[in-house]
Structure to design on (719 residues):
């Protein structure tokens, strides 16, 4: 800003310098060069240094124009600087989490609605342009919301525009605009490869097939998932628990209007014949052809198994870092802002891996993880979400604490931020099995990178969740079709859950790794962290991702050294990429956390009670029928409290209501217990079928199970 004024017009000079100083301070530059008598170098002229500057090494150089956006502004557009820093942020010289060159849009003074400002047609256009620039620079949604709603920007165009959105919650409005900005698709390249389809009556069967080919030719994001065509999008969502919003990547089902828009913008120009004018004219996508494409079901579009928001690793150790669909992993890579990975050696050393592990471990310093095994599980969770493309299925991660406020949710937010650049939006738990099934099915179709069951109050038991973790697919009902079940691929999703003093139950026990947090204080929520680990990740997310890749590559470069690890059935590829590299670096085996979970499993506890009662009262290797077992359980004796069961352990183990034992109920329990091995006093027992007799009754017996013998490979036996 420069001007020509007389010495007498000192008030005008002071006014201009005050406004210049304000610009400098808000852009993070030190004040002191705001005086207007300084020479404004004109592009095309040469800057000649004086003698003092030439002596220090300065040389003549041309003045050039670096950037010009075509905008012009009145003096009144620039507010004056305050003499004192604002009380709420006395040391700030920039906007937290947003680069200075982008944040300057927040300081553009308001000139009212409908008036051009900052080189844009109006305030809303300025706001949207700011969001796009900020997201491209890597700013996250939380920083954007905090900045846009900060009252210190009162009087500025963007702030006042947001406040003028009557009837809308300001945070929600900003969140939804962030969603729109994140999903903005540039049309320039798509327009170059559009094909033209001329619509004639009676040719719908050809038109919808031509549309399908055009979508594939234009590389449009149209994928098959759960019996429907879907599109990966950013969505602004609020969690039910804390009502906090976050931007999440998910799959959204195409309907008539969404698919018509995708086709018209990026793939096809439709034309109809005008008989009167005798020429072909443009038209909207024909509804019947789009509807046919939506409902055919035999699409040639690629199947997508999940979304990742950061580079990930393929099963062969190569990195997926090109945004878009990856045929090798069937994943859609949708970056969360600009991300720069530091150089990663092709063959890192073990020392490189240990340095990378320390970088990750330091993030966990403020979390009260009880034992070494709990830290190992937390690190395994970090590696799992980053390496998700390298294996099809992964265990569930379960974080437990005795008190609320210990940091369980914050830890999962940290893990999610490393993998996705943002917090995970929790899926609230429920004690209604049918409702839980509906929520899991909906989550499976959406395909979010992280499934997060937050603050559960009841024991975690779900056959559908167990299937999702173990098989990588579940059956879902396509939209609007309650009588049809379609397999839905969940292999790109990692499941997390947390709660206070609850348990994993049943089949989920062997599929779940548990980490315990304990602050050992009555009010753990009053603890403070020495640093914010999430802020640390956001400041250099690429370094933490590179650390994960370095650990795995170093293990592979070393020849995948064998570790003393028990089998983890069904999770071998995950073990090779996550579990074994961590053990190679000296950490506890994260899978060993399942042993404690087995002891706490109420279903396995009930099994131990029943088999213990069978051993005590029916003997080992002694055949018995369900009727004989029921009769013995129902025998009574007189006691101080009257008539009581003669064999209370047996009665309690078999009674459902505490009042009686039935042959039908006992038969059901014996059938469920068949061949299940249970440890009692250092020995292993199981119930087996002794004889099968349909005319009378089956007989059962309890038998000792011998420990399996270790098979020594011939090459080792010869040594």
């Amino acid at each position: 800003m420069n001007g020509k004024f007389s010495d007498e017009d000192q008030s005008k000079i002071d006014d201009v310098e005050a406004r210049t100083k304000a610009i400098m301070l808000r852009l993070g530059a030190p004040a002191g060069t705001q005086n207007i008598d300084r020479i404004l170098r004109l592009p095309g002229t040469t800057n000649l240094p004086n003698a003092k500057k030439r002596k220090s090494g300065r040389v003549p150089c041309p003045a050039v124009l670096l950037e010009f956006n075509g905008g012009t502004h009145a003096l009144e557009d620039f507010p004056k600087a305050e003499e004192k820093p604002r009380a709420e942020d006395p040391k700030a010289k920039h906007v937290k989490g947003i680069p200075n060159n982008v944040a300057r849009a927040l300081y553009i003074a308001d000139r009212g609605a409908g008036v051009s400002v900052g080189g844009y047609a109006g305030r809303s256009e300025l706001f949207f342009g700011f969001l796009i620039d900020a997201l491209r620079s890597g700013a996250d949604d939380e920083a954007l919301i905090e900045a846009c709603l900060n009252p210190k920007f009162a009087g500025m165009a963007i702030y006042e525009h947001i406040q003028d959105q009557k009837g809308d919650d300001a945070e929600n409005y900003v969140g939804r605009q962030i969603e729109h900005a994140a999903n903005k698709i540039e049309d320039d390249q798509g327009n170059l490869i559009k094909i033209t389809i001329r619509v004639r009556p009676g040719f719908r069967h050809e038109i919808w097939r031509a549309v399908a080919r055009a979508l594939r030719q234009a590389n449009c994001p149209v994928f098959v998932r759960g019996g429907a065509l879907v599109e990966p999008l950013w969505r602004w969502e609020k969690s039910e628990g804390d009502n906090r919003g976050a931007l999440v990547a998910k799959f959204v089902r195409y309907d008539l209007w969404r698919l018509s828009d995708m086709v018209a913008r990026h793939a096809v120009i439709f034309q109809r014949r005008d008989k009167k004018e005798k020429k072909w004219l443009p038209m909207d996508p024909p509804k019947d052809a789009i509807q046919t494409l939506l409902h055919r079901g035999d699409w040639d579009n690629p199947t997508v198994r999940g979304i990742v928001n950061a580079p990930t690793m393929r099963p062969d150790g190569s990195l997926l870092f090109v945004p878009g669909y990856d045929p090798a992993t069937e994943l859609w890579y949708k970056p969360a802002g600009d991300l720069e990975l530091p150089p990663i050696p092709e063959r890192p050393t073990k020392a490189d891996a240990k340095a990378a592990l320390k970088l990750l471990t330091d993030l966990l310093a403020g979390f009260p993880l009880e034992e070494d095994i709990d830290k190992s599980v937390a690190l395994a969770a970090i590696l799992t979400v980053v390496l998700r493309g390298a294996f099809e299925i992964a265990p569930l991660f379960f974080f437990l604490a005795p008190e609320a406020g210990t940091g369980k949710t914050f830890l999962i937010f940290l893990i999610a931020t490393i993998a996705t650049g943002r917090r995970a939006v929790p899926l609230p738990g429920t004690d209604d099995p049918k409702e839980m099934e509906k929520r899991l099915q909906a989550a499976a179709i959406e395909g979010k990178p992280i499934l997060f069951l937050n603050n559960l109050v009841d024991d975690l038991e779900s056959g559908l969740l167990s299937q999702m973790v173990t098989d990588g697919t579940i059956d879902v009902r396509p939209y609007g079709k309650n009588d049809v079940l379609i397999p839905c691929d969940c292999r790109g999703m990692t499941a997390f859950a947390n709660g206070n003093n609850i348990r994993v139950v049943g089949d989920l026990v062997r599929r779940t790794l548990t980490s315990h947090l304990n602050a050992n204080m009555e009010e753990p929520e009053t603890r403070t962290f020495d640093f914010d680990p999430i802020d640390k990740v956001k400041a250099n997310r690429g370094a933490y991702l590179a650390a994960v890749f370095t650990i795995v590559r170093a293990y592979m470069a070393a020849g995948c050294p064998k570790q003393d690890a028990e089998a983890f059935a069904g999770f071998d590829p995950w073990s090779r990429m996550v579990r074994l590299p961590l053990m190679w670096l000296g950490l506890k085996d994260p899978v060993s956390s399942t042993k404690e979970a087995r002891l706490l499993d109420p279903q396995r506890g009930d099994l131990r009670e029943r088999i213990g009662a069978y051993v005590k009262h029916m003997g080992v290797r002694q055949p018995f029928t369900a009727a004989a077992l029921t009769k013995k359980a129902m025998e009574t004796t007189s006691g101080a409290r009257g008539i009581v069961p003669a064999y209370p352990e047996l009665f309690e183990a078999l009674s459902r209501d505490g009042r009686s034992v039935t042959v039908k109920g006992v038969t059901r329990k014996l059938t469920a217990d068949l061949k299940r091995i249970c440890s009692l006093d250092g020995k292993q027992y199981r119930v087996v079928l002794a004889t099968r007799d349909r005319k009378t009754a089956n007989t059962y017996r309890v038998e000792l199970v011998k420990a399996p013998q270790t098979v020594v490979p011939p090459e080792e036996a010869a040594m």
In short: The CA atoms of residues 475 and 487 lie 4 Å apart. The first strand starts at residue 46 and ends at 47. The radius of gyration is 33 Å. The first helix runs from residue 10 to 26.
